[in-house]
Amino acid sequence: MKPVERLTDIETPVGYVDLERVRRNAARAAEYCGAHGLGWRPHIKTHKSRTVAALQLEHGASGLTVATLREAEVMADLTDDLLLAYPPVGRAKLDRLLSLPGHLDLKVGLDSVDVLSDLAGAAEAAGRTVGVLVEMDAGMGRVGLTTPEAVVGLAQATQEMAGVRFRGLMFYPGHVRMPAGEQSGALADVAARLDGVLSALAAEGLRPEIVSGGSTPTLWRSHEIAGVTEVRPGSCIYYDREGLDLGVASEGDLAYTVLATVVSTSVPGQAVVDAGSKALAKEDRGGGGFGILLDRPEVVVRSLSEEHGVLDLASTDWKPAVGERVRIVPNHVCVSVNLQDSLLVKDGDVHGMMPLEARGRGPWNP
Amino acid sequence: MKPVERLTDIETPVGYVDLERVRRNAARAAEYCGAHGLGWRPHIKTHKSRTVAALQLEHGASGLTVATLREAEVMADLTDDLLLAYPPVGRAKLDRLLSLPGHLDLKVGLDSVDVLSDLAGAAEAAGRTVGVLVEMDAGMGRVGLTTPEAVVGLAQATQEMAGVRFRGLMFYPGHVRMPAGEQSGALADVAARLDGVLSALAAEGLRPEIVSGGSTPTLWRSHEIAGVTEVRPGSCIYYDREGLDLGVASEGDLAYTVLATVVSTSVPGQAVVDAGSKALAKEDRGGGGFGILLDRPEVVVRSLSEEHGVLDLASTDWKPAVGERVRIVPNHVCVSVNLQDSLLVKDGDVHGMMPLEARGRGPWNP
Fold it and tell me: The domain that contains A200 carries what CATH number?
């Protein structure tokens, strides 16, 4: 971390991380997974930081999950166990994938024979064997094979090809937005789909060594899905307003905010800050508006322009002045982090700047 | 431009600019402004590119508009006439502002005496005089003073301070979403508000040399707002799906798309591409979904995850295959450009990569 002498020297808007809360969030995820015999393979797309990934591994993460080749390159020397949870399509991406260090137990999630055969051919030519997790649709309807027969077919195809090895299954229950107790039907449906796939695989003598599932909204109930061996939650390292609204996190868990400055109070009933859609992301997540203030959760970011965030003062007695600083909890932390150049980090009384090495798409040249 | 030998070597997702269309869009804006005696001061927040800013100046732009200090630093040597259309709040931003090259006729838009007095004090200490455009609210209700009296008061305060000079007015009619013919009432209301402010200023002997207005949705009708001397449209250099929906642009004007690759067709009725909310931005602009295909506008990007875009195939006969490439017109071009590392540019038959020098927030060190 590059140290910061005076907090007032920091320009806004800037993403702001509380490292003590990050450690607590990591410990809690590790503890939950340990208690239920699950591997914890955090998705680093949320934080894109080598510092935070190393912290997750220190707290017991069994490996890392990435979505892009850049993320894979940046994280490759921190772990022996890397999952690219995204199909690598095209020569350029395959070349980057197969140039990753040889020490890695490298796995790729995919859902088509097109991607599989290109990967197998390229891996064989490179003298490598890449693990394959066949992706199944757990009901979200985004990617993943939609029938047990299709999953079995792709698993068998994997077994027949050189350059690849069938390691197991992957799914993402991104449609289940559940906190404690609710939507048990949706979770039971995920479990039933997985059970059907596992039975169909077993009937063909296929035993997935890895069954990778999980998300932050379903995190604390991952153990209810029989057969899952590991989870890949991302945002639970920082949390966000959505996690708060879903009851997955409480206010004391919020480890990421955007530090912003009031720049205008000219229109009555509102204050305008310098964090707009280019710092918070204008993502509607169903909660109304685009974020809330950490210290005044009754104040909602009502609207966003690119460099303007409009705070609604209707429900507060607070009278902000131009120049005053606020901390905003964004609706969706992953996309806000991705908009930052680097992050301001607080560790106890010490402040510093933390790079986001895995941001962007090009090859990483450290 | 760094040349690109083979287009298939380019990894997706990547923003993709057609420079011939950019030139045509620039020429049309310049022609319209010239025909109506208006200055054209494009807002470079849309493109964040020195190449495109230089092209706008070659086509007759009278100066440039920026929103951030980084944008100002990057553009400072391309023009003599720069407007920071955003209040610089805090010591760090004032220091950067006053470190801009001395050749610049520098102007700042602001709406409070707090910002004004800090700016004046810092400018005087730096031995500079900075021009001030007092921002008025034209009905959008975001920033800007809401009464003629308040505008007169801030203009008079400017005249009384060393370090600053009253140069005129600024407003942004961002609430008027009009193409040809429609919403004439909203435009007339903007004109009436401006007229009220100009009359109040005149009554105090204040004559604004600059009256800066305009937006892309109202661009072609800027001349209907009496008293405006210049416009600051941004997105009309590239356009986007919103511009198309509003009728401000036609399909042949769309100069920016996101090149993406189909990565999954496992779920019937849809195809998934590798451009998600981290390439397109998940901004609802009222058109349904988050973008359309350039060559198949009947195909809508129905939903976005961070690295997944789901194309709805309900209204097309097209049967995409994994590996196929598409060009997506995002809902809002400015926020999509801001998500790219650099852009793929097509100029006739030649392709190259174009940097986005003004992306990010830190000081620009060329």
Answer: 3.20.20.10
Residues of chain A with pLDDT > 90: what percent?
92
Total structural domains within chain A: 2
Composition of chain B by helix, strand, coil, percent to 5: 30, 25, 45
Cβ distance of B114 and A321 shorter than 8 Å = yes
Pick from A280, A268, A283: nearest CA to A327? A280
Domain range for A232? 20-239
Shared domain for A165 and A261, answered yes or no, is: no
Size of interface A-B (CB pairs under 8 A): 177
pLDDT per residue as tens digits for the range B224-260: 999 999 999 999 999 999 999 999 999 999 999 999 9
CB A280 within 8 A of CB A291: yes
CATH of the domain at B322: 2.40.37.20
Let me know if residue A8 belongs to a domain: no
Average pLDDT, chain A: 96
Query: Quick check: B281 and A284 CB within 8 A?
Result: no
Q: Per the domain annotation, does B266 fall within a domain? A: yes
Mutation to test the A interface, candidates B110, B232, B306, most A Cβ within 10 Å: B306
Same domain (yes/no): A230, A123: yes
pLDDT digits (tens, 9 = 90+) for B282-303: 999 888 999 999 999 999 999 9
| Domain end (from A195, A211, A239) | A239
Q: In terms of Cα–Cα distance, which of B46, B164, B160, B33 is closest to B107? A: B164
Q: Residues B187-203: pLDDT tens digits?
A: 999 999 999 999 999 99
Residue of B nearest to A321 (CA): B114
Q: What is the pTM of this model?
A: 0.97
| Residue B73 DSSP one-character state | H
Q: Which residues of A touch B111 (CB under 8 A)?
A: 264, 266
Query: Are A24 and A239 a contacting pair, CB within 8 Å?
Result: no
Q: Which residues of B touch A114 (CB under 8 A)?
A: 321-323
Centre a 10 Å sphere on the Cβ of residue A77 and count the other Cβ atoms it contains.
13
pLDDT at residue B180 above 70? no
pLDDT score for B365: 83
Among A13, A262, A278, the residue with its CB nearest the CB of B338 is A278
Task: Establish whether this prediction's ipTM goes over 0.85.
Answer: yes
Task: Answer whether residue A32 is part of any domain.
Answer: yes
Domain for residue B12, yes or no? Answer: no
Answer for the pair A253, A22: CB distance below 8 angstroms, yes or no: no
CB contact under 8 A, A68 and B307: yes
| Number of helices (H), then strands (E), in chain A | 9, 18
Residues A160 and A299 in one domain: no
| A134 and A264 fall within a common domain | no
| Chain B residues whose beta carbon lies within 8 Å of the beta carbon of residue A261 | 89-90
